Amino acid sequence: MSDDKNSYENNNAIDDLKKSAEIKDREISELKKRVEDEKRLNQIHLTMIRELQAQLTAQARLGIITLSLLSSGRNRYIWLQLR
Predict the structure, then answer these.
(1) Residue 65: how many CB atoms within 10 A of its CB?
(2) Cα gap 20→10, rounded to integer Å
(3) How many whole angstroms separate alpha carbon 43 and alpha carbon 36?
(4) Is the entire prediction scored with pTM above 0.70?
């Protein structure tokens, strides 16, 4: 009778360990998926940041060109007034 009880308890313990391992495997799988999702999201954000940097650089260049043209136009206007 004692052997049957020990065997039953051992089987229950083994079943509990198997269930626990399955739960942990699912948790690990979910964490891996979340990590991959975060990597994709980070890549999207990085791409957006690079695009914004390129736009800002282009706008800054355009601003410098505009200021340069305005400045040269004003200088030319002053020069013509002095003539």
Answers:
(1) 10
(2) 15
(3) 11
(4) no
Provide the token pair at 12.
């229950």
Locate 46 and state its tokens.
Answer: 């990085």
Helical segments of 1-83, H only: 2-82
pLDDT 10s per residue in the chain (83 long)? 577 878 889 999 999 999 999 999 999 999 999 999 999 999 999 999 999 999 999 999 998 888 888 887 777 767 677 76
Quote the CA–CA distance of 11 and 3 in Å, as a whole number.
12
